[in-house]
Amino acid sequence: MKYLDEYRDGELAQRIIREIARKVTRPWVLMEICGGQTHTIMRYGLDQLLPASIELVHGPGCPVCVTPASLLDRAIELASRDDVTLVSYGDMLRVPGTNRDLFSAKARGADVRMVYSPLDALRIARLNPDRKVVFLAVGFETTAPANAMAVYQAHREGLDNFYLLASHVLVPPAIRALAASPDNRVRGFIAPGHVCTVVGCSDYEDLVREFRVPIVVGGFEPVDLLQAILALVSMLEEGRAEFANEYTRTVSHSGNLEAQRIVDEVFEVADQPWRGLGEIPQSGLRLRSKFAAWDADKVFDLHVPNAEGDSDCISAEILKGLKKPTDCSAFGCRCTPESPLGAPMVSSEGACSAYYQYRRHDLVALK
Fold first, then answer.
1. How far apart are CA 113 and CA 128, in angstroms?
2. Strands 162-169 and 278-287, sheet pairing
3. I want to staple 163 with a disulfide (CB 3.0 to 4.6 A). Which of 30, 40, 221, 296 is the partner?
4. How confident is the model at residue 94 (pLDDT cuts 50, 70, 90)?
5. Are the C-beta atoms of residues 223 and 230 closer than 8 Å to each other?
6. What is the pTM for the complete model shown?
7. What is the C-alpha separation between 207 and 180, in angstroms, rounded?
8. Are the C-beta atoms of residues 179 and 320 closer than 8 Å to each other?
9. How far apart are CA 316 and CA 322, in angstroms?
10. What is the DSSP letter of 291?
11. How far is CA 360 from each of CA 74, 87, 94, 352, 366, rounded to the nearest angstrom?
């Protein structure tokens, strides 16, 4: 508890905020990439404590939010088969596909099970040799090592009834797509600390050099984020585009080499569709041909057309930092966690979920 108190120290936070106010002389738009960081900002009201000239926008760092609807449609199609058990993390069960979600499929009799680890999915496959067990594997670089290890273990055991339906995405290509967009408003990025813990820092240094934009690795506590914002404001005010790591207690420059090794052995980089952002080149991971026997997309005959999201959902603009959840006419009314129009309202890391959880009483009253 003492460890957390250090990074939730109100007096220290106020000193950093005063230093930010002393340095800032013009408007700056900053983006935190990770949805966990967004929730910290909303929970502690950091955006309201900062000078008005600093605007925080929320990036595509929620893996549930950027998982394409077509993947959910494929998962639902698989779950509806009599011989398939579809296994998933809980936050994917309410994410809408084109017409329904996995909870709806389960209510109709599909064998859909929630787990907390891909190793749980392996255990289900071992205990049910007569079932085809498909694990819905989504996430950024943080979940890729565990999912890679599950496939590696299935390969080593010869477990032939376990499969991965994968939609892994990579953060640096998404930042590249945002920075290169003609609509981009962001002048500095807070990189996700947990991702950098795994992959290290070199890709982010490359982005700084390519786009001349400052990037700072940030953590997830209030003081972590304020330190990252201070570092970005200092660089921007001084005309510097540099990389900095403000999460050194967790992130090293090289990252977790063992985790990188298993990911590289099992997966290869590929083009990847992102919900709301379209296809981003070289921004995803797919199973290598060596592990094709465990690739659900290759093993099962799936015929699911490309899907589009709800026309009333502005999640694409939110993920690009162009709009806030408060700009959505459906927020808190037609779109709630119980009846979401889009994934950002479902996920525990979604921006709409954060605004709904911490700001809805103020915001809905204004509608």
1. 13
2. antiparallel
3. 296
4. confident
5. no
6. 0.92
7. 11
8. no
9. 9
10. G
11. 33, 32, 20, 10, 10
**pLDDT bracket for residue 53 (50, 70, 90):** very high
Q: Are strands 162-169 and 132-139 parallel, antiparallel or unpaired?
A: parallel
How confident is residue 3, by pLDDT bands cut at 50, 70 and 90? low
Eight-class DSSP state of 99: S
- For residue 139, give both structure tokens: 């996430």
Residue 97 CA to residue 148 CA, distance in Å, equals 25
pLDDT of residue 367: 47
In angstroms, what is the C-alpha Rg of the chain? 21
Q: What is the DSSP letter of 27?
A: -
pLDDT interval class at 1 (50, 70, 90): very low
In angstroms, what CA-CA distances link 118 with 211, 251, 279, 287? 37, 24, 26, 15
Q: How far apart are CA 139 and CA 116, in angstroms?
A: 13
Domains recognised in the chain with CATH numbers: 1-313 (3.40.50.11740), 315-365 (no CATH)
| Mean pLDDT of the 83-102 span | 90
Q: Where are the alpha helices (DSSP H) in the chain?
A: 2-7, 10-23, 35-44, 46-49, 63-66, 69-79, 102-107, 118-127, 144-157, 171-180, 193-199, 202-211, 222-237, 257-266, 296-299, 315-319, 351-365
Return the amino acid letter for 107.
Answer: A
Integer CA distances (angstroms), 334 to 64, 104, 276, in order:
20, 19, 19
Does an H or E element contain 61, and which?
strand 54-61
Which token pair is 171? 């953060």
Q: In sequence order, what DSSP letters do the residues of 139-192 get, joined into one string?
A: ESTTTHHHHHHHHHHHHHHT-TTEEEEEEEE-HHHHHHHHHHSTT---SEEEEE
Distance (Å, whole) CA 170 – CA 177: 12
